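Hi U.,

Before I forget, here's the chain from the pilot set. I'm dumping it here mostly so it's searchable later in email.
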Amino acid sequence: MLPNAGQGAAQAFEDAYILARWLAALPADPAAAMENFRRIRIPRVHAVQRSSSTIVRTKHDYDPRGPNTARAKVDAVEAMTWLWGYDVVAAWDQPPAVPAVARSHGQ
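Structure:
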């Protein structure tokens, strides 16, 4: 997990909570619990990683003397609401909502 979205520890807590909930929900079938955990977590974790990568590219590609100064204006609060507003307790068994920009692979 790149440090640029400030989510390393948060993702670990989300993982721990969701894994514990799936293991509690399916105590007789830990393999199924792990499959469900992966199904729920992988889209969100990949989206967080892509968002972190985008932040890195934006920071490194920005030229304060260049004509494209708008790239520096990353509204972190608005752009990251999907990330910071995630309610792990309410949504532990639901596929995560991931914005289109966090689903794409390239910029």
